[in-house]
Write a structure and sequence with these properties.
This protein is an alpha+beta fold. It has helices at about 15-25, 30-55, 100-120, 170-180, 190-210, 270-275, 280-290, 300-310, 320-335, 340-350; strands at about 10-15, 70-75, 85-90, 130-135, 145, 150-155, 220-225, 240, 250, 255. The chain is built from ten helices and ten strands.
């Protein structure tokens, strides 16, 4: 396992705080109530995660050879908030009647398979970490999250969001926060935090594309397609192809993601806009993948994976630091060919300079 200064788990949710804050101010209590409750519960979980990381470190498990098979366990919270809940499906058991349980189980498996088959990585930590998930968390909970140890899925409120196991890329996104936790350990604030979010979007969409057997040209490049209720005007939470176009709804608001540095948002909210400015490196990856064509998890994904896990990406890396590493990695792995040119073109188009600037 390659790590950069240790692994500090952060509490990461798929629905950004800025979306929930918009919903929390709505005049209809059927919309505002679940959003307010979700924000409060997320804040509690974030504090709990921080305290656990600081004071509750567990002893390292005994070392054993990692398996080429996942070790999945699905729990049911039964609409409560005590984790992990009641065990309802173990590795190798047959699907049951609860489709939410089955989707969570399949999503964990798809994530494990992409990392193993494409990058020879054994689970989230590279050492065969068991994959646990809890479904049916709380009542009307509008989110899904990685808490540093396991996945948790809400069922949605039915008004704005539906079952959070509906999108396999959401499962891959959240589990990839675990990969980042165990490798580059990107600081969850500002540009490093936006890179953290972008890495999860990149590998989340690659997991979906791998699962569906799609080429870069065939993929929709949406994150969270299938999460929005039918009444919402939108397609997903984010679009890597066209950041800022995922939704435009009277209740949900308008997708604020920029595609280039010209639209970079400076804010103290959402940990310095980590879910907003991630649109910029997201779009860069989309450009690389579609320029190269074929399966995006191969050349484009390999470059991004090499940078994430190579040990040179610093915890407080900015966009231009990351860009420089992708250029160096593309050149080292593929030489001065179309891969390198695709990477250079992508960062130029999103307005990120290749040479890192001096930091004050």
């Amino acid at each position: 396992m390659t790590t950069n200064g240790g692994s500090e788990p952060v509490f990461c949710t798929i629905v950004p705080p800025h979306i929930l804050s918009t919903l929390a101010r709505h005049e209809d209590p059927a919309v505002s109530g679940p959003a307010q409750h979700t924000l409060l519960l997320d804040a509690e979980n974030r504090t709990r995660r921080s305290l656990t990381a600081e004071y509750g470190r567990a002893a390292a498990p005994a070392v054993k050879p990692p398996s080429d098979q996942p070790l999945r366990t699905i729990y049911d919270a039964e609409h409560r908030t005590t984790l992990p809940g009641t065990k309802v499906r173990a590795e190798g058991s047959e699907p049951g009647r609860d489709t939410t349980v089955n989707r969570a189980y399949a999503g964990l498996g798809a994530t494990f398979e992409l990392y193993l088959k494409a990058y020879q990585r054994h689970s989230i930590d590279g050492d065969g970490l068991p994959l646990d998930a809890t479904v049916h968390y709380d009542e009307g909970y509008n989110n899904a999250f990685w808490d540093g140890k396991q996945m948790v899925f809400g069922d949605g409120d039915g008004e704005i969001f539906v079952d959070f196991t509906n999108s396999i890329d959401v499962i891959g996104h959240e589990l990839t926060h675990g990969v980042t936790q165990h490798t580059a350990n990107l600081t969850y604030y500002g540009q490093p935090g936006a890179l953290n979010e972008s890495m999860s979007d990149v590998f989340g969409t690659l997991i979906k594309q791998y699962w569906l057997g799609q080429t870069a040209a065939e993929a929709d490049w949406l994150i969270g397609a299938g999460l929005l209720a039918p009444s919402v005007t939108g397609t997903a939470l984010r679009s890597m192809k066209a950041p800022g176009s995922a939704y435009d709804d009277d209740v949900l608001g308008t997708d604020p993601q920029p595609a280039t540095m010209d639209g970079y948002v400076r804010t103290g909210r959402d940990n310095g806009g980590v879910h907003i400015n991630s649109g910029i490196p997201n779009h860069a990856f989309y450009i690389v993948a579609t320029t190269l064509g074929g399966y995006a998890w191969e050349r484009a994904g390999q470059i991004w994976y090499d940078v994430l896990t190579g040990g040179e990406l610093k915890e407080k890396a900015f966009f231009d630091d990351f860009a420089q590493l992708t250029v160096a990695t593309a050149n080292e792995r593929y030489g001065d060919g179309e891969e390198l040119q695709a990477v250079l073109k992508a960062w130029e188009r999103v307005g990120v300079p290749i040479t890192p600037r001096a930091r004050l």
